[in-house]
TrEMBL record, chain A:
WD repeats lie at residues 59-100, 149-190, 191-234, 235-276, 286-320, 321-353. The keyword Repeat applies. This is Guanine nucleotide binding protein (G protein), beta 5a. Keywords: Repeat, Transducer, WD repeat. Belongs to the WD repeat G protein beta family. One of its GO terms (biological process) is heart contraction. May interact with RGS9; this interaction stabilizes both proteins and increases RGS9 GTPase-activating protein (GAP) activity, hence accelerating the deactivation of D(2) dopamine receptor-mediated signaling. InterPro entries: G-protein_beta_1-5, WD40/YVTN_repeat-like_dom_sf, WD40_G-protein_beta-like, WD40_PAC1, WD40_repeat_CS, WD40_repeat_dom_sf, WD40_rpt. The keyword Repeat applies.
TrEMBL record, chain B:
This is Regulator of G protein signaling 9a. GO terms for molecular function: GTPase activator activity. Signal peptide: none annotated. PROSITE patterns: RGS (PS50132). Keywords: Signal transduction inhibitor. It comes from the Eukaryota. InterPro entries: DEP_dom (IPR000591), G-protein_gamma-like_dom (IPR015898), GGL_sf (IPR036284), RGS (IPR016137), RGS6/7/9/11 (IPR047016), RGS6/7/9/11_DHEX_sf (IPR047017), RGS_DHEX (IPR040759), RGS_sf (IPR036305).
Amino acid sequence: MATQEVQLNETLTHLKTESETLKTKLEEERAKLHDVELHQVAEKVEGLGQFVMKTRRTLKGHGNKVLCMDWCKDKRRIVSSSQDGKVIVWDAFTTNKEHAVTMPCTWVMACAYAPSGCAVACGGLDNKCSVYPLSLDKNENLAAKKKSVAMHTNYLSACSFTNSDMQILTSSGDGTCALWDVESGQLLQSFHGHAADVLCLDLAPSETGNTFVSGGCDKKANVWDMRSGQCIQSFETHESDINSVRYYPSGDAFASGSDDATCRLYDLRADREVAIYSKESIIFGVSSVDFSLSGRLLFGGYNDYTINVWDVLKGTRVSILFGHENRVSTLRVSPDGTAFSTGSWDHTLRIWA
Amino acid sequence: MTIRTARQDRGQHFRPRMHCFKKLEAIVVEMQDQKSGVKGSEQKLNVSTIPHVISKDVIAWIANKMKSTAETLVFGTMLVAYGYIYPLQNHKKLVMCNDASLYRFQTPYFWPAQKWVAEDSDYAHYNHLHELLNHKWDFIVMQATEQYAGKERKKPDRVVFDCQERAYWIVNRPPRRTHSAMDVGPERLIDPNTDENIFFQQAIMRSKVKSSVSLGLVKYITTYKNHDPFLAPCLPSNPWLSDNDSYWNLNMRVDAPTKMRVERWSFSFFELLSDLRGRDDFKVFLKKEFENLAFWEAAEELKWGTASSMSTKAETIFRTFLAPGAPRWINIDGRTMGLTVKGLDHPHRYVLEAAQTHVFLLMKKDTFFRYLKSPVYKEMQKKALNPEPHNFQSQLDQNAQNRSAGIHPIILWQQEEEEKAKAAAAAAPIDVKAMMSKIDRKK
């Protein structure tokens, strides 16, 4: 009916203008409290010296683009997944492949190592997250014991175990995140609020361990309460898709990497962005970010095949690393901070220290 | 009649991931400026002379524009990989080399951000002539004109045109087993319909603090500075650098931890608890006052456990820690106790949250500091190892050959589970009846 349409349009415009006014008011409130930038606060901190970071291991074995990787708590093993459906568990120290699984789908964009070291989770275009218990018996067929845990209505973009092997947190192209019970496959909590694909997530390293942050194609980074499913904080300063989010080691801040070629740092207590890591000469998107153990260094993997290392406090780039022959798709620092690993579309993984 | 292909659309219309293309195009246009751009010249290639050929000057121009030399070669390679510049020799390798290699700017017609798609039908045309396709008219006509007028054109123009077209197809249909910059991930969906207004209203209400609270970040960095392997050397050595895994072995759940590790326990209660060896030491200190930590551990097990184990765990916790006269009764305030016991009627994984936080804060603010001043901790500090830094100058190759496999995490996990089970059995509330009947049977 014509009149109904007119009414609907009016409501929409009204909502839009209300949304804009509220947004401006929120920015004003945030700006009132703004007194110093992070690099000003950090003026007295001494600068960093020269770094010698090189590739210490190259892991070859994937037949196609490496999309994701995760470290085991033992600080030397990793799990990686690729476009052709292969998930491989390596002892990165010796470069031996220990387990390999072939998923029934391509583009396995998410994989995670269980805290106990006894299982791995992975998923991608199959819209699911499955858990494979690992075995000491090399001949055992891991696919036989596979457990299907999460079910989304679109691709799985990221997954992570919580503090135990019993729960998994997932994010998906269907715009939601969800918490699942591994044993039963039951959905424990779902998180709605992103307006487009959710591409990444990270759990807070806090004493309570009850929050996590997610980033999506709607350029927003949202912080969620795992108990209630509510979005408790939201940040929208990026100009394009947010490909990666990672908490600062203390849990009081987090960093994000986006297709707009910048990395940004958000302080959770000040509720605002406190630093931007960018250069005019860097115009290709960031696929993945992670902090060094103390939080002083921020490592970013970029789509122009390089890795940039940033001084978190001063906001300057301290190093640029070359080596991969295609875009760097994933980057994680090891649990004890002794090295970081990168995975790339050039089919290899590299360990840097 | 239109022909549809089932192939995924590789066009550049609405792809936020190719955000960089706008910036790239702007720079390429600048590079071709008559006055301030890159200078081209005529070069002889095989038998013909090609106009507007560029070489290493591109790299110098980029370095000047970006005011940085670190990534000029990378940036140049990106321009070639995406097809804005193409190499005249060695045309299959899409990289920029800092030598005498020759390049040309690609005609804008073939730039990657054009609206039309590089379809298979076009590729077929490139190889063989096919019937007319309505939506490819421009391209067909252009090709046809070239072919018809080709003989009249000067050889260099023809060579140039062939090069341009060939370069376009190398970028969009990369040869097998090569990496292509034009690869994209799976399609991302965008649907911008939200109800954000409630969220903004709440956000405005929420209290905020001044940005100088970011001092906390500086403080954290300063505290952990010497423990960051990228900033200070690991003792005895970083396993990835020396190929020797002593560092990992020394930091397992060993009797004698290292000095750095013991120092780290003093940074925060959370650090002490997170390191299982630290937790062991804390338990030694607690001796009899053990119930708070045991309750905290049990509450963690409940929070992160399987959904099916919830009610049994809740019951055990009630009997052990909360019931009147329980063997490990925890001393929490009446209100919290009341809320918790009531919640246990319908147990869920966060039912112990209030009690757990209370107990945690108690330990963090009181017990932890007493621990740091206690003889137990001071003994540990004295006993702690300070490993000598390794000096593997001549031995590095040998180390690389003999990398040890370490203990598999599955084995470690099984060992830990066994220990936990033993400890739980020893600490379980004593069943008096069973004890009495055992004694009776012995008699």
